[in-house]
Every structure is written in structure tokens, then in C-alpha cells.
Amino acid sequence: MTPNNHRTRTGSQKGFTLLEVMVSMIIMLVGLISVAELFAVALREDSFSFNHGAATLAAQDKIEELRGLSFTDAQLQLTPAGEDSLAASVAGYNDTAGNFIRRWSVTVGPTPDTRVVNLRVIPVLTDPRRAKQQLDISTILTKKE
User: Which neighbouring-strand residues pair with 142?
Assistant: First the structure.
């Protein structure tokens, strides 16, 4: 009888082949990369949400400040014709709050005792991911009696 030099896999042997281990590692690697990308997206969206919330607070503060003014106050005078105070800083129609520039325009409201205020809050930071975080709000203010 000649000795059998190569082993054959019998039903009693247990384990994985190298090929099976490599395939399972590749599948696991693809899954882990997907989870890592998901974390990166979540962090980016969390940052966006935080900055949007801060811009909303800055806008609310300015609207409340303008609400407290009388119609004769300089900040509530009608924006001069031909001036786009939302696109560029016009004297008397902009200020800064934290990391934001606030610009507003005042126009005639639907009735003589109202004014329409359009407010734009723009992040000061030049991060290109924050360029779309500009916030526009419009409200109607009524004359105090």
C-alpha cells in the first residue's frame, strides 16, 4: 500500500478555507466603510443643524428688536429706492450678531400702518459648506398705538 500524501476533506473536518475567510473579510470591510461614511454624513448634518439653529436665533433676536421700535426709528424707515440692502451692506440696514451678518429691508405693508421687513442672516465664516446656510425671514410689523 502506498501512503496517501495529500489530504482529502472529509465530513468530520471542520473549519473555513482561506478563500472563504477572504470573501467574508471583504464583505465586512464594505459594510464598515459604509458605516463610516454614514457617520461622516451625520456629523456634517449635525453641524449644519447647529449653525441653522444659531442663525434662526440671530434672526429672531433682530425681529424682536425691530418690533420694539417705533415707525419713526431710523432702522424702520423704508429702504431707499434702488438699494438692495439684502444683497449688500447698506448703512442703517445691517449689523452683526456673533458669527452672522444680518441685513434687512423695509417696505410698505399691505395697510398704511404696517411695514414688511425682510431679514437675511448670512454666516460670516467662509467655509464653502456653509454658503447655503443663509437664512431669509419676512414679517409684517404693525404701528404701535
Answer: 114
